[in-house]
Every structure is written in C-alpha cells, then in structure tokens.
What does this fold into?
Amino acid sequence: MKIPGCCSGGLFRFWSGCLGVVVLTGAGLFSGTLEAGVSVWGRYENLLTVMDYQSGMCLLDENKLRLDFEATPDQRVSLLASGYMQTFHGATELSRVLLVPAWVADSIPDSVKSLLSMRLADRVVLDRAYASVRWPRLRIRVGKQPLAWGTGYVWNPTEVIRPKSFFDPEYEREGMNALRLDVTLFGPSLQLFFLPGSDFGRSGYIGRLDGNLLGFDWGAIGSRREQESARTGEKWSELMAGGQFKGEVLGFGVWGEGAYHWPAGKDRFLRFCLGMDYTLTSQTYALVEYLHNSAGQSGDYEFDAWLGLAAGDISSLGQNYLFASLIQPVFGFHRLGLSALANLGDRSLAVLPSVYLGLGDNVELSLFGAVSLGGDRTEFGGAGANGVMARVSVYF
It folds into this structure.
C-alpha cells in the first residue's frame, strides 16, 4: 500500500521538515546554555597491520584521531557528538579477491575483479551526532547514533549494523542516522526506530521490547529494512523478527539471540547464537559461543557464495560455527588471550591470540594475531590469510 504523497515526495519532505524543526529546536536550547555543562575527551590510535596472503605480504598503517563531545544544557536535554580523522599509509589499494582461494580468484572475470577492488583514502567521519530529550516515561533521540544491541558476544543476529570484528568484538562501531523513541511501560520498555531512506517505502522501521523475567533479561525485536548487494547493486526489502535472553545459571553466564528473516524474492533463513561464560578462581575468563546460520551451505561452497563473501554481501559461508576464548589477567592491568573460530562444517579454523598491555593510566598496546588452518576449499584455510596487528591507543 502506498502512502499518499510518497511518490511525489511531498509527505516525506513534510516529515523530514518536522524532524529538522526538532533538531533546530534542540540546537537552540543547547546554544543558549552552553556553559551549563560540557565534556570533551578523545583518543589517538595507531594501527599497524601485516597480512600474509597467498599473493604476498601487505603492510598497512592507520592513524586515527577521535574527539567526543557531550553537553547537558538542562536535566532533560543532552547532546553528544563524536568524529574522527583517519589517514592510511602503505597498501592502501587492495582487492577483496585476496579473501578467496586462488582457484576461485582465477575464475573471476576481470570486470568483476574491478568491482571488488577498494582504495583506502584519508577521511573525516562524523561517527555520532544526536540530541536527546527526556521525560519521566519518554525519551526522544534524533541524529546519527549507535544502534548496537543483542546479547551475543561475537554474533548478533538481531542487529542492523555491520558485524563485529573477530579480533576485537568489543571495539566501537559507527552509528546510523535514526529517530528513536524510548517508552517506559509498567515493567518492559519499548523502543521504536525510524531510519530515513529516500522515501518512506525505502526507509527502515524497527521495534524492540525489553524486560526482565525471573532474573533473566529478555527482548523481542521486529524490523523492516532495505538491503542492497555490494556486488550487483540489487535492492530488496527484508522483514526480520527475533528475540534474545541473558542470565545466570549455577554461576555460569548464559545467553541466546536469534532472528528469522523474510527477504523479498529470496529464500527465508534463520540465524541464532547460544553462549556461555565463566570466571575461574584464577580469574581466567572462559567463553564459548555457537552460531547457526541456515542461509549458509553445508557442502562445497558455490562460486557465487565465494563472490558474496568477497564483496561483503554475506558474512560467512557455512551453517555452523563455534567461537571459544580464554582471557587471563596479568598483574591486574595486562591481559593475555587466546581465541579460536571454527567452521564446524568444513573443519577449518582461525586461531586468534591477543595481548593487552596497560602502558600507563591512559596508554594501551593491543596485539592481535591470526593463523588460518584448513584445506584450500575451506572458508578459513582457502584464502590462507595470516597476520598480526598492533594498536597503540592514547586517551585524553
């Protein structure tokens, strides 16, 4: 069903104008009371990456300067903005063909290879910029904001943003432009999101309901969003419904998260993860998480699946995965970690060691490694990518 005025853009421009009024009103409230309370902080990072692919070794160095700004003009209104400047040096022109086995790369036409090439250019990014207005049972937030949620540590089947990094799942991810309403009910809380597109038909709609039952946090979510293939440019709408839970049983932390997807004109699929963690008396932290993805393939992967992985249209090839991690604190402020990511279908494995060193009150050194194991037709062994990353972070 079409919304009247949507084709001409009249109604959409009307509501966009209303959102603009909200932003300008919030900006006016803020500008008149700037001295009421302002906080500014930031972080500098240098990330050195050395990767050894089948075609040779690549060296990439990144500099990143991030600034965060928060102001609270009064008890109801707050404004937060974050941005960063980033420069790249070294192997700044790469091809995603490096992410597939040589026997697959040799069969990719040159016209497709050009679509899989990428160039890392210096950039300035407005990561987050949003205003919030709060009342006793209602909060409105408008602007570019974090839309990360879910109970999974590595996988979040109900999220709408890019997947986490297996190297560092807790690293922040870029925000998305949205209008958000939080309504506190008598117990559960309701969250509604509107992600503007070129018109209402191409916009995103998300609803979440969160609560607690018998000591377990629970959540239910539904969404309608537009998707696009990075390789072919094809667009389609997708419905999703899912939920999550998190709690503790006999001292073990347990959680689960899953979602069922209805992409228009495509096969439906289910993704869910289950996890458990525990801290030993030696302070060793142990975690294990399982993912099932029914959209994956159980046998030999098709050529199109490899292309989809290289283009970023899909995040995995198989159906069943297991992630396990051990983290040991050393002297209270250093950490040693060893993680492994296994594709249970093709029996390939990525081993991910890590070291976190606290070099001072505001200085950290993080080291990550990746060793791929498996045959040349497996997900992790096929590309044969191995490497190390070193990240220095200075907070101020």
User: Anything to note?
Assistant: DSSP finds five helices and 20 strands in the chain. The first helix runs from residue 10 to 31.
